[in-house]
Structure formats: C-alpha cells, structure tokens
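Pasting as-is:
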Amino acid sequence: MLRLLRLRRVSNLFSRLERDIRLNYFWMRSIRLLCVTLLAVHCAGCFYFLLAVKEPNPMQTWIGSSLPDYRSRGPWICYIYSLYWSMTTLTTVGYGDLHAQNCAEMAFNILYMLFNLSLTSYLIGNITNLVVEADSRTKKYRDSSKALDSFAKRHYLPCELHEQMQDHIRLKYKTQMLKHDEIMNAMPKAIRTNIARRLFFDIVESAYLFQGASYNFLLQLVTEMVPEYFPPKEDLILFNEAPTDFYILVSGMLDVIVIIDGVEQVIEIAQASDVVGELGVLCFKPQPFTVRTRKLSHLMRIDRNNFMTIVNANVADGQIVANNLFQHLRSTSNKYICEIAPVFESALANGECGITMSLGFVTSTGESQLLELMLNQGTDPNTLDDSHQTALHISATNGFIECARLLLQYGADPNILDDENSVPLFKALNEHHYALARLLWDHGASLPVGAQGDYLCTAAEKGDVRLLESLLNYGADVNSANSRVDTALHIAIESGWPEAVKLLLTYGAQVDCRNQNGLTPLEMAKQGGQEALLELLHCPPKVSLSHTTVPIRNPVKIAHQRSTHSPRSWMSGFYRSSTSQKGIRSKEFNARITVQVCHPKSLELGNAKAQKFLIPLPSTWDALMNSLSKKLGYSPSKIYNEDEAEIDEISVIRDGDNIYVVGEDLNKVQTHASHVVTNRTSRRRS
C-alpha cells in the first residue's frame, strides 16, 4: 500500500507532459484519463480477490460462484476474473450477472459504486472539454458566417460587399490562432518592447517617414504598433475620411486610388515598407486617397493619438518625421500628389499638424523651400533656440547661403549674439564660408567690439591664418584683447605660430601691449626661447594700409536689409500665405511705402482728405524722386516722416513707412499750420 505514494510522482510527470508545448495536449490528457481508469480497475480487482481469499467458504464468494476451483488455478486466471468483475462493475455493464455473495462484498460494492459515480463524472467532463475546445473555433466561425449572411440578406447588401465581408470573417478565422494582442497584453512592458523590436523594428526603420529618427523613438513606436491582415480587395482607407490611423506595409500589395470624373484610377501601387495614410494623419487633413488591398496583405497599424503622444515626447524626432514627409512631397513624380502637395506643405509649415517645426531645425537641414514656406506663414526669423542661436547662426555655421539669403530677406538680424558670444558673421568666417560672410556683411552684419578680441584669440590659438586675416579684413581691431587681457599676438606667440605672428604684425599689432600678467609679446617670446618669433618682433614687417581696408558694403543691400528689419516685414509674410498655398513663391522681397501728399502738421488741422498712394521702395534716392515726380506731375521739394523730420537719404526709409511729400505750395500751408498750432498751444497754456 505504501507504494501507492509513488502515484504523486506519476501525477507530476503527467502535469509536466501536459505543459510541454512540443506534445499534443489532447493526447496527453487522454492518456492520463486512461491511466486513471486502469488504475481504478486494477485496485478494485485486487480488493475483490482479497475479499474472496479471506472468505472461509470458497463457494460464498463472487469468484467461487463462477470458478469453484479458483484456489487451485494460477494467479493470472484469477487476476483476469478479478479485472473483469471490476470493469463490469465500473461500467455497470453486466452487473446483473455478477453480484456480491456475502456481506463484505456488498459493503465494498457500495463504496466502489459511489467512487464510480465520481470517476465517471470526472472522465466525461474532461473528454467533453477536449472535444468542445477543438470544435469551438469552428462553431464560432460558422455562427459568425450565418449571422453575416442573415445580415446581408436582411439589408439587401450587394453581392460584392457580401463577399468582402465573408473574406474578412474567413481571414480572421485563419489568423485567430496567432493571438498577437492576447499574448502582448499579457506581457510586462519590458518584454513587450523586446518582442516588438524583434518583430517590427527593421520594417519601421526602412520606412521613408522615419529615416534619421533616433533609436529610442523607433523603439517606442514599434511598441504601439498592431499587426493586421487584410484579404484582397478590401478598403483600408476611404477618400475624405477622418484621419485616425496610418499603416506600414509588411507584405502584400496595395492600390492607392483617386476618383477622377467619377471613375476610380490607381495612381500608385504600394509595396513592402511603404507607408499609407500618413498625409491625413500628420497634416490633420481628410484622407486624400482610397487605399485598397490588391492581395492578402500584412500591415502594421499606428493609431494617430498614440503616435502624436510619442512625437510630443520626442520633439526633435517629430521634426525629422515632418521634414521627411515634406521631402517626400517635394521629390514625388506623381502628378496628382504634386497638385495637392501645397495644401499639406502649408499645414506642415504653420504647425497645423501638431508637430511644431522650429526654424532652426529646418535651417539645419538646408531645406530652403520649407524655410521659405515657414517664413511666408509669418514665422519670426529671429526666433532663438535653447543655445540662444537664431536660424541665421545655424545657416552660417553650415554654409547654407540660400537659407541665409531667405532669412535676411525676411528681416533676420545678423548681429544677434548666442550663448558663446558669437554672431553669424563670425560663425561663417570660422567655417570659411566666405560667400556667406560677404552676404551677411552686405546686410549690415558686423563683429561686435566687445567680442573681437575673443574671436582673434580663438583664431590665433588654432593658428588659423585664413580666419585671422578674414576677421581683420571685416573690421576686427588687431589690438583688441580678450577677457584675460591677452591680444591675438600674445596668444599666437604663446602657441608658437610664426605665420600668425607675421600676419598680425602686418596688420599693425602692437608689440608693447601688456596682458593680465604684465607681459608684452616680446617678453613672452624671450621667456619661451622662440628665436624665430623674436626676430619677427624685433624687425616687424611694414604695416600695409591695403590690408586694413574694410570691405565696402553695398548700399542697396543695406537699405533693403534695414527695411526688412521692421517687424512688419516678417509679419507681412503671413498675409501672403494664400499665394504660397497656390504654389506661387516670391523669389525676392519687395519693400513698399505709403506716400501722403501733405505735411504732417496739416493732419493736426483735421485735413484727412490728403492724397495717399502705395509705391515700391526704390533702391536709390534719385529713383524715388523720379517716381514721385511721375506720380504727382511735379517735383517734390521736401519729404518728411511721421515725426516731421526731413528725409534726404534713401537708407533711412524702411518697409511699411509713411512718408509725407511737400511741394512749394504745401510749404506755405505748412507755415500757416505751424502758426495756427502755435496760437492754439499758447491759448491753452493761458
């Protein structure tokens, strides 16, 4: 009897086998139930034979009534008789022919029959579960199909739509065993992230929309993706529907369809790794296409709300995504997409999509078209980033001359200092972008007096002779000192750059100026034992006046730059946004002024009927006078601003200014107006 304790080990063995996914659960469970049944039959048969052996009268036993000489028979014959008796009792088959012969057997049969009830219930319940589980999916599919047929007939749906519904139910039945959502939701976030990275990361990384995005951003994105399967000829996205999701195609093929003159036309075929639905989602516009599967397709669905949450947490990556979409719209050869592209480009530029693109980021990519679009939408060109840099700083550093030209045209200030005390002109010279530096110079850029010493010392420390010469040519004082009272000559001698020392001496560097430690450049060279430098300092080259000439600014460009510095300049781009949406982009900014034919004093007398007109701001004073003469029919004698100050130079007139033109007759009116105003003032005081 003690050996029955081994049954616990056997039970554990079967439990392990049932959990082993390499073995079929149905057969493992069936074998376990069979073993339980055989064990019960064996134990009952042994007890029956034990009762017969213990009975004094062999004929008063169940086996004695059937086999009188059972005591003389072998053990296997008796064992078979006992099993037969036990089995017929367990299954209640033939129990009327075999029954108890004494009280002990009757008592045992009572207990055995009660046990049989429990065992039979256990067996029937387990077998039922196994059979039902195997057939439940099929039954559910059949029920869904019947309900779908009934629905289609009740609502008189067309046969084509009915077939699409049936295909969807059939595909769902075939892919139900994947249980992706059920498995992923049961896992903790760390494991879900690793699973998603293994399954979807390569697909997402290869999509054009996410080129250049960070690893962490892509990892967060794949965690929120949901795989879906679609049968052929099923619509994923409908034309003009609200943007809720977009898809990345893993396998299969999709048709991008538009309706032209009432006829559906396929304008594009999406292949693996292509993205569909992103235009509507990212630009928050109705979907411009219908997307339909051409064959069985596996796609990754991304919910818009989840995507925007991730983008808001990764601002830099969001700007990369928006820029990739803009580049895609620009590079596409599809005629239909080119026609609708301005609407989506405008949404990207003004931030309607929820992804705020900074001017600095757009400039860093060198995308001048998107930059112009943003400036046209009214973005301030002097916006500062975290490093106190403007877009002009970034453009100067990277050498994007077209971006710099656009920024200057829309009023960017070329003399703003960043956290490193650098201006765009120094950034351009430091990176040897000389054409861009000249552009900045012509638009009023200069090297700040307080930072010239730092700029020169930086160049001298590196031994960059070209940078030193450029800084000096653009007006830097060769004897200006840095924060430690060191001049560029001190730094060049300390660093041991003979060419830099020679250049500085050529530009008139003083050899007797002292630094914070009270040392002159000559004394520093002696301490360092630099004979070549000592010789240069003792016999310095002659100062060439041609070297000290600052480049002449183009006055036309300066006047234009000053006009665009007005806040009205960059805000006026907002009112031209409709032009940009039609694909018409102005290549050159035209400044305008308002001309009133009266003296400013006459307005105080209530003369509000003065002639007023709008003209472009000419580039020269003579051109302005000629334009006014043609417009008025006579040559103006004087021009005033709103503060009654007389104007005699074109450079002081800015975009959006009001000027007052006065002829000889109007001078008399002005004199009379002055007397009237004076009399009124004296009366008020009295």
